[in-house]
Amino acid sequence: MGGLLPSLGRSVERRVHHADLGERDPDYIRDNLPWLWLLASAWFRADVRGLENIPERGPALLVGNHSGGNMIPDTVILTMAFSTYFGAERPFYQLAHNLVLAIPALAPLRRFGTVAATPENAAGALDAGAVLLVYPGGDHEVSRPVWERNVIDFDGRRGFVREALDAGVPLVPVVSIGGQETALFLSRGAGLARALRLDRTLRLKTLPISLALPWGLNVGDFLGHLPLPAKITIQVLPAIDLHERFGPDPDVDEVFEHVVALMQETLDALAAERRLPVLG
Amino acid sequence: MKVSASTDIAAAPEAVWALIGDLRRWPDFVAGLTRWEAAGRRRSGLGARYRALMRIGSADIGGLVEVVEFHPPADLAWNAVTGAEQRGRWRLRPHGEDATRVELRMTYHVAGWAPGAWLIARIAERAIRRNLTRTLGELARQVERDGSGR
Questions:
Q1: For chain A, how many structural domains are there in total?
Q2: pLDDT at B113
Q3: Contact between A32 and B84 using a beta-carbon 8 Å cutoff
Q4: Which of B50, B58, B120 to mutate to test the interface with A (most CBs of A within 10 A)?
Q5: Which domain holds residue A83?
Q6: A87 touching chain B per CB within 8 A
Q7: Least CB-packed of A61, A231, A249, B103 within 10 Å?
């Protein structure tokens, strides 16, 4: 085990270096929009609001919360909605954990514009004038237990603020609800991940434990699961011009707190709209 | 996939064309339209381009459309330039003494693996047909209201 994991870690690193911005393929996206539309409309009864808040032209950094273990409906639905709204022609990238891009079955994500969450990819996408989506909460967030489903928890990760400031682009908060009801998430399994040294070898701080279809007890969610058809609502908030709102030299902590508070407020409002779990 | 709907409106073709021929007025009667913005200087007539989106299921679907036929008071056709592949037509013909038969047609293509695409096109058809039928109902109400106001 001791020798296997580090070598697996290295193999993951090798694979993700191939995921660069040039792999996004608008024709591929166009061909796949119809079934994503069906999945979003029929299975998740998705409701995406406020896309008009994304600046019509030029780069922007979308910062969102996301849910659902390794089967994250929020990303799929937002990518579909963005592409039908602005057209597959408009460049749109999503940052993802290295491990996600290393899974062979998820290779098509690269053609949708999913790239490894590296500072180079983030700066490259924004410099090229693209819209970039980041989920700062990462694996910490998607594996939170179900009773924390309506909490914005980025685990203090503030890198996105620096990225927006460095690139000089507006920040657009995106709040999503429903994804953490697609299975019964019980624990992040952080202790288990540490015990297995996954944090050091694969940059995995969690090993989520859930009850999910079709497995029953599901540890790690490496093979994914069949998500319950939870209603997903996504609210895009008005773009924030950081210099206009926070002055010439914004304080990263202040911006972070502001964005998280704003998103929590929105999530609370969306939670208040929901009457029943899963059904929405 | 082709979808069409038609209705008879108790007014002359010119009265119906007063609404259809003025593209700025489409949001007043086109059902499901979530975005309708002129792209470029030309607001109406041949060559006018609009950013158009229609809510179908969970998504706002559409793109840039351009008016490719403009023959008052009879025919107006558009083609999609970007976004969803579709085209459409308003066809107005005199019907009897003082009525107009209005036909609204849309043709669209769903991309991707053929059997799946066919199924999805059929599912979308229901939502589109509903929007077309509502559009004609609203158009008739507005034309008839405008006519009685004069």
A1: 1
A2: 85
A3: no
A4: B58
A5: 4-272
A6: yes
A7: A249
| pLDDT tens for each residue of B92-144 | 999 998 899 999 999 999 988 888 899 999 988 999 999 999 999 999 999 98
Residue A161: is its pLDDT beyond 50? yes
Q: Give the per-residue pLDDT at A107.
A: 82
- Chain A hits for B35, CB-CB cut-off 8 Å, are 52
Name the most confidently modeled range: A20-29, A231-240, B32-41.
A231-240
Query: Averaged over A191-195, what is the pLDDT?
Result: 89
> Does residue A280 sit within a domain?
no
Give the Cα-Cα-Cα angle A112, A86, A154 (nearest 5 degrees): 60
Which residue in chain B is spatially nearest to A28 when comparing CA positions?
A: B112
- Answer whether A84 sits within 8 Å of B123, measured CB to CB: no
Q: Which helix (H) or strand (E) holds A212?
A: strand A209-212
Contacts A–B by Cβ distance under 8 A:
62
Q: Tell me how far apart the alpha carbons of residues B145 and B98 are, in angstroms, rounded to a whole number.
A: 16
For residue A193, what are the CA distances in angstroms to A4, A219, A232, A269? 15, 11, 29, 34
Q: Is residue A206 part of a domain?
A: yes
The pLDDT, as a whole number, for residue A200 is 85
CATH number of the domain to which A189 belongs: 3.40.1130
Q: Which residues of A touch B64 (CB under 8 A)?
A: 87
Average pLDDT, chain A: 90
**Mean pLDDT in chain B?**
93
pLDDT band at A1; cut points 50, 70, 90: very low
ipTM: 0.83
Are A234 and A174 in contact, with CB atoms under 8 Å apart?
yes
* Chain A residues with beta carbon closer than 8 angstroms to that of B60: 51, 81, 84-85
Tell me if A277 is assigned to some domain: no
By the 10 Å C-beta count (0-12 exposed, 13-18 middle, 19+ buried), B25 is classed as: middle
A48 to chain B, any CB pair closer than 8 A? The answer is yes
Give 3-state DSSP helix, strand, coil % of chain A, rounded to 5. 45, 15, 35
